[in-house]
Amino acid sequence: MTNCRLVINFSFFLCLVVNLAPLVLMFPFTNNQLGYNFYDTTCPKFPMIVRSSVWSAIRNETRMTASLLRLHFHDCIVNGCDGSVLLDDTPDFTGEKNAFPNKNSLRGFEVIDNIKEEVERSCPSTVSCADILAFAAREAVSMSWGPFWPVALGRRDATTTTQDAANQQVPSPFDSLEIITAKFTSKGLDLNDVVILSGAHTIGFAHCSTFQRRLFDFKSSGKPDPVLDPLLLSKLQSMCPNKDTSNSNILAPLDVTSSCTFDNAYYTNLVSNKGLLESDQALNGDPKTAAKVNYYSTNRFSFYNDFSASMVKLSNVGVLTGQNGQIRKKCGSVN
């Protein structure tokens, strides 16, 4: 079941927009070629176009919040926030969309494409797809009762990428904590960011294939993961029968208590051994990260504040500015 009752935090979001200045001081960005007012004169309608389109997308399908946030993360974690994840394959080019972590998994491309078309009508060849994606992800989270963070703008779009880059750089639910941390630190992030950004799994869903081995053959033991809560284990085994290939499209909520609301229940679930992915539950099994998990499980607003700061860091990873890259006219192809 992937449908949720629509409860968009629109009034809270508008309040934060009005009071943006204090937030800018709290979360300074690190790339001095980006700016919070980058499109004020060249494309003043840009924020409202994105805001309206994201609101419509979430109203149509609340799952889209998680999809847009994940799309932004998968863009940034592969060679930086350059819109490369949006590129379509061609006979002469194989990009990130069909890499193992992304194929039949990443969603929301049509939302970004629709925003781009409307932005192009308003201000042609001005706003990058990378900026649209970064801004849309923030809007989606803040409209779903999550935190708000300032998004510095001025990114340019990549003109190339590779499928291999996505296969190698995107963290996997089967990776150990050490491997995931190494992938984060290679981008200038750290172990704290691993714990904090994993909290994005407080919304969204996962396919059976991403957690099925925990249910029946954890680490080739022929038995379920002994840490997993027994009641949740039984429920998941019913949803995803062992070696049943027909369940490839079945989805389970990453957060078993509030999968459509951005909150801190993800951490509460980990403390109760109800994390869906083994890479998530591992955060509560390692002394280097368990203390943070426990802290965020009882401190929602501390999580919000730290998540905002980590998202600012993430959205500045490997950005292209100035004369680097281009402003793609269509997000799926280079000019």
Describe, in plain words, how this protein is organized in 3D.
This protein is mostly helical and 335 residues long. The protein has 15 helices and 2 strands. The protein has helices at 10-18, 20-26, 46-60, 64-76, 109-122, 129-143, 163-169, 177-185, 191-198, 212-216, 230-239, 265-271, 278-281, 287-297, 300-314, and strands at residues 205-207, 251-253. It has a two-stranded antiparallel ribbon. α3 (46-60) packs across α6 (129-143) and α12 packs across α14 (287-297). The longest helix is centred in the N-terminal third of the chain and has 15 residues, at 46-60. Residues 10-25 have low confidence and may be disordered.
Please write the string of helix (H) and strand (E) elements: HHHHHHHHHEHHEHHHH
Q: Find the count of extended strands (DSSP E, 2+ residues).
A: 2
Largest sheet: 2 strands, antiparallel
Tally of separate helices: 15
